[in-house]
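Bug #77: duplicate submission created two jobs. Keeping one. Sequence:
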Amino acid sequence: MSENYRKVYYIFSPFLRIFHWIMVLCIITLFFTGLYITKPISGGVNGEPTFGAMVLSLNMIRNIHFLAAFTLTASFILKIYGFIVNKGDRLFPRVWEKSFWLCMMDVSLHYMLIQPTHKSYLRNSLARMSYVALYLMILVEILTGFAMYLMVNPNGMGAFLFGWINPMVGGEFTVHLIHHYVAWLIVLSAIGHVYMVIRSEFMEGEGEVSSMFSGVKALSHEPVDIGEIIDKKTETVK
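Kept job's structure:
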């Protein structure tokens, strides 16, 4: 296929795209409100901690944090539904296949500037591994967050569902530390993700950025992993 012609592959369902942008907004909100909750700005003697000139009370910051947490959890469920109904949402690591590890080596050599290009993939092995790592970290944040939030009523249903996490890891303070440090890992991963997406957009020109709006990628070569979404509609564009 000529470099001047690209084939459009529909990959990402609306469920995954909606989840992606909700996740972006929620992670940003959760991170900064979480930092503030951890170390609020003093409101002075007899004054409630506030957020600088905005004069947002600590209680309001906490409520924003909790609202973002519930929104992220609901969108995570939406992502699971998308995983069920759309093949393009299931591009997860296939560690049992030799081709997965060959792809990992191929892409790694390219990223390390040892080889100039790599084969065409709908989603390469490194990207797939990063998704799983991110989703696992989000799951840890959801579990530890609810383990702390719902223990305000230790006899309630919420405490029954999530309270077991606290003694399992050594207490609520340990849960807080896990929640805090995993949040930093998510943010650092997000920074790396943004860099790699922008790099791919400029170096490979496959619509990596626009794919999270349109759901499609435009490839000049048939991707090695096309078999995973072979039943999806495709079209050729100049």
